[in-house]
């Protein structure tokens, strides 16, 4: 019996799950309004409201590397709370924060990965190297002096360089930021930064910076002359993704219905266009595929974070 059924007293469990959702559904986004996850959550919410007959309302709860919003969903007992978030929260945060009061792999049900995206390694125009392979050679000649910016310790933009350093036996200088990374790359305060596609591609097109590498397995149509990460570091790529999770109080039948709808919506031509307009690739996968992706990345990033002794608590 679910928490939602208990709250409805004598309502039979079968009737409750068959009609899910039976009232407003809250979509928690652990990021600020106007960010990529927020935009996507609102797009999916509009479609889900129409197809499932109940309002899907976005609630922004940013902070603590996504933990504030995620924890609120993990603690939800109303049977009508979802999380629209990104892969760092279940795959990196458990290793970075030793005292989390929730476990996404136990307290939530994966629904569907909606999209994948990548990063562009942007560099100052006066930085001598023109590719990541050249940057690695450049850094070997001056260990610990070639600076790169990141979005902070333990973020993908930081951990990517940790892997590059280990696999190429080079040493770069890490400069963590909270904001203004690309501005300082343009100004030459730091040499490089891994920037997500949606914000990186306009900067690259403006020629205020140059692109040294893309992190997807294949070169981008938008940057056909820019090598992939794997061309410099064989076997290494770096993809970010977004997806939907359901609170454990959502009944299994509700999760299944939601997964089918999210996958259907992702296949719509207008949704695919809107996702690609944000420099991302639509997915709309199954719950099982999402679980496998989480487990694989949890192990991958856990090994890196443990080896480097990176902690944020």
Automatic annotation (TrEMBL):
<dbReference type="InterPro" id="IPR042100">
    <property type="entry name" value="Bug_dom1"/>
</dbReference>
<dbReference type="Pfam" id="PF03401">
    <property type="entry name" value="TctC"/>
</dbReference>
<comment type="similarity">
    <text>Belongs to the UPF0065 (bug) family.</text>
</comment>
<protein>
    <submittedName>
        <fullName>Tripartite tricarboxylate transporter substrate-binding protein</fullName>
    </submittedName>
</protein>
<dbReference type="InterPro" id="IPR005064">
    <property type="entry name" value="BUG"/>
</dbReference>
């Amino acid at each position: 019996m679910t928490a939602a059924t208990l709250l409805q007293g004598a309502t039979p469990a079968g009737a409750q799950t068959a009609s899910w959702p039976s009232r407003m559904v809250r979509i928690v986004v652990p990021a600020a309004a106007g960010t990529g996850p927020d935009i996507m959550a609102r797009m999916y919410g509009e479609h889900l409201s129409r197809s499932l007959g109940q309002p899907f309302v976005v609630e922004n709860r940013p902070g603590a590397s996504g933990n504030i919003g995620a924890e609120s969903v993990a603690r939800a007992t109303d049977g009508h709370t979802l999380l629209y978030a990104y892969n760092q929260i279940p795959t990196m945060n458990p290793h970075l924060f030793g005292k989390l009061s929730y476990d996404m792999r136990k307290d939530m049900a994966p629904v569907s990965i909606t999209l994948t995206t990548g990063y562009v390694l942007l560099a100052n125009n006066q930085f001598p190297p023109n590719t990541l392979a050249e940057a690695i050679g450049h850094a070997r000649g001056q260990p610990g002096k070639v600076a790169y910016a990141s979005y902070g310790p333990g973020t993908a933009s930081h951990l990517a360089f940790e892997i590059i350093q280990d696999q190429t036996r080079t040493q770069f200088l890490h400069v963590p930021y909270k904001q203004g990374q690309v501005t300082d790359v343009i100004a030459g305060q730091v040499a490089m930064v891994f920037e997500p596609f949606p914000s990186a591609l306009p900067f690259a097109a403006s020629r205020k910076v140059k692109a040294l590498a893309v992190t997807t397995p294949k070169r981008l149509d938008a940057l056909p002359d820019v090598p992939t990460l794997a061309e410099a570091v064989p076997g290494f790529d770096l993809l970010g993704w977004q997806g939907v999770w359901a609170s454990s109080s959502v009944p299994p039948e509700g999760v299944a219905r939601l997964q089918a709808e999210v996958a259907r919506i992702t296949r719509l031509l207008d949704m695919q266009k809107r996702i690609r307009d944000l420099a991302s690739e639509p997915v709309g996968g199954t719950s099982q595929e999402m679980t496998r992706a989480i487990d694989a990345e949890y192990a991958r990033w856990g090994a890196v974070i443990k080896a480097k002794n990176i902690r944020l608590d």
